[in-house]
Structures are given as C-alpha cells and as structure tokens.
Amino acid sequence: MTDDLSKQYYERSRRVTPGGVHSPVRAFKNVDSHPKFIAKGSESLIEDVDGKSYVDYCMSWGPLILGHADPDVMEAIRKTTADGWTFGAADVFSLELAELITSRIPWVDQVRFVNSGTEAVMSALRVARAATGKNKILKFDGCYHGHVDSMLVAAGSGLVEMATPDSAGISEETARQTIVAPLDDLSAVEEVFSTHANDIAAVIIEPVPANNGLLLQRDGYLKDLVALAKRHDVLVIFDEVITGFRVAFGGVAELAGIEPDLVTYGKVVGGGFPVGAFGGRKDLMGLVAPEGPVYQAGTLSANPVAMSAGLTTLKKLLRENPYHKLAAATQKMGERLKSLSSKELSLDLTVQSFGSIFWAGLGEVESPDGAIRTPNQIPQMQKNLYSRFYPELLSRGYYLAPSGYEVGFMSTKHTEQQNEGLVDAFVASLKNVLGE
C-alpha cells in the first residue's frame, strides 16, 4: 500500500503552513520521513488518508486514555453541541468539572480552566510571582513546560548561573528569570537555593519527566525536593499536564503523597479536546482575576464541548478505575520487550515505564544503576537509530511518536494481543535495521 496521499497533502501543507504542520514533532523530521495524514481513529487504531491502519501508542500525545472516539465521550459531545458549542459565558459543564476535581484532589481548592498546558504553566508562574513578590523560577534540565518564553531556556555555563534562551525570539532578559538545575542532584538544588532563594518564587518540575525520554527519578527524590523548597520558602509547582489523571486520578502527587502549592493539568483533563487547567491552594488561586490582581483570561477558556468531554472522561475514570490494570499491562509489555530483545538483539535496551506511560532507550546506558534519570544518560545513538527504526515499525502497522525522545501511552482499548504485537514488531524492526 502506498502513502501517495499523505505525500501530496504534506507538499500542499508546506506551502501554507510552517513546515507543513501545526506542532513541530508532527513533521516527522526526527525520523527522516514525511508525516502520515490521519483520517480517523477508533479505540486503539488510527487510519491514514491512504487507508493504512496502525495500532496507535501515541494516543494524541497522551489525552486519549479511553482510546479514540470513546462512545460515552462521543455521546456527551453530541448532547452538548445540540445546544450550542460556545457561549463566552459561565456554564454548568465547567462548574461540574471544577467541583469534581476540587472534591477529589485535596491540594486543589480552586481551579481555573484555560486552553492548553502552556497557558496553565504561564498562569501558574504568574500567580507564584505575585504571591511571593519574587521573580525567578527554578526548573530542571530534561523537563518541558510548554512554549512559555521563560521555560524555553537551557542551562547556563555554570551550575548556579541564569539560563540562556533555547529558542529564537526569547530575550536574554526573559531567560535570566529562570535557573536550570540538573535532575537527580539535590545538592545542586541546595546550591541554587543557597545563592538565589531570596529571588526564587517557585520551583517547577514534571514529577515524572516525560518529554525527554521517560526520566524516572529515585524513590524519595520528590519528597526531598519539596522539603528543600519549603525550607527556603519557595513555592512548589507540579506540572502534571501529562501525568495528571493518567497515572492516577490525582497524578504523581497522589502516588507520592505530596501536596504541591500549585499544579497544572492538560491532556486527559479535556478528554482529547484543547484544555489546560491550573489550581492549588485557595489563598494562591484567590489572587487570580476577577477576585485578585493576577490577570488571566481566554475567549474559549472552559469551552462547553471540552468541559463536557473532560467531565465525562474523568467520571468514567472514577467509575472504572483502570489505573492498576493499565500500569500492569504497560509493565508486562516492557518486561517482555526487555526479555525478548536481550535474547534476539546485540543492542542494549533500557525499557522504562510509569503507570500507563512507557519509553525505550536504545543503546548502552552510562548510569550507576542502569536507569535513565537525566537527559545526558540517554544513549548517544538514540536519535540516529530511532530515525532508522521508526519506518520499519510503521510498515508493520504500529504507530509510536515520531521521535525517539517522546514517550508512548497505553489506553484502556489496547489489547494484550496488540501489546505483544508491538513487542514483536519492535524487536523485528530493530533486527532489520541492525542487520541481525
């Protein structure tokens, strides 16, 4: 089967859209190919415009924990749109979704809905600065917090120096508001605090970093980090845009027994529609307009369709509580991949999973315990090998993220047979690339 239509659409799109896509990784540049234009999805499957089907483990980058076109979410959307799809006014769906979240998550006294994870992070940072009267933010190398100017930064040349812009169009002045510390190194954080604590409004972290590989942190790391921040009167923001409502209803914070001051959500909270949210303690959220002086607004914030989809998704997750089953299936798939690859490949594979999120490091890992916890522990061959491996996997009917640094996602619609098939296709694809 050819992919002629995808090629044609891509060429058309490149004439009218930067790079032919509306988010960079969709361009397939990291896998030396052109993107597949997807026509439809159902349960765990997607189909491209050329009619080829794939078992999808990208799941729209995480939101679709219930799979594509979940019938309950679909019915809720139909009912909502029958009465209109945007009002620019207060509505019952956003009220009920906010009540559900605040009633179930103890550290979220109040929540404000926005349109993306980036907006959520931007707003949470603004609240933190307003609450503390301090301007600097501490983030971690390997964590991604959307395309907020102050978060698109790289570490400076020295441990406690300010960050430098990691994108064109970001000023040096903006970058200097952010400090970047290494993951898996509390002594480095202590050094940052000892020098800059009086200037730092908040520390923000993905509690399970999942945008530069899946960087699993050591047991106790988060609790020690939070304790360190509290000791220096620095607010803690958990960016749970990926992990919130996916690894547990209350995200990593629930599993770790930690109550952050502020938290950001996205992806699953909107049931597959464009939604973000930030929430936290009432005294902090009370600073947000119109109640307080921190301005935040959005024409389509809390859009009724997205709120209805999110409300239906979260209610179904509470009702069915699939988290343990998803985590077990994901872990089983990872263990089988590790076992099969060790028998059939000369290549070392480091397979890491957390809840229903998984990722594989391709190549030898230089790490004391064999786990990949920081970006510099990702194998050097990861990018090049993944770019050669990925087309092989697609040809076998399996769709992962088109980048070796992005994670995979399990949904409630994936079957054991499909999971086993992914493992077999993964190993066969690598064997073919490696000539083994």
Largest sheet: 7 strands, mixed
Q: Give the structural class.
A: alpha/beta
Unreliable residue stretches: 157-161
The count of domains is 2
CATH architecture of the largest domain: 3-Layer(aba) Sandwich
Write structural notes for this entry:
α2 (71-81) packs antiparallel against α10. The protein has helices at 4-16, 71-81, 92-104, 117-132, 172-175, 186-196, 221-231, 251-256, 282-285, 304-320, 323-344, 382-395, 416-434, and strands at residues 38-42, 45-48, 53-56, 110-114, 136-140, 153-154, 164-165, 178-181, 200-205, 235-239, 262-266, 276-280, 349-354, 357-362, 398-399, 408-409. Helix content is 37%, strand content 16%. It folds into 2 domains: 4-65 and 322-434, Alpha-Beta Complex (Aspartate Aminotransferase, domain 1), CATH 3.90.1150; 71-320, Type I PLP-dependent aspartate aminotransferase-like (Major domain) (Aspartate Aminotransferase, domain 2), CATH 3.40.640.10. It contains 13 helices and 16 strands. The radius of gyration is 22 Å and the shape is globular. The longest helix has 22 residues, at 323-344. The strands form 4 sheets. A 7-stranded mixed beta sheet has the order 4-12-11-10-9-5-8, with helices on both faces. Strands 1-2-3-15 form a 4-stranded mixed beta sheet.
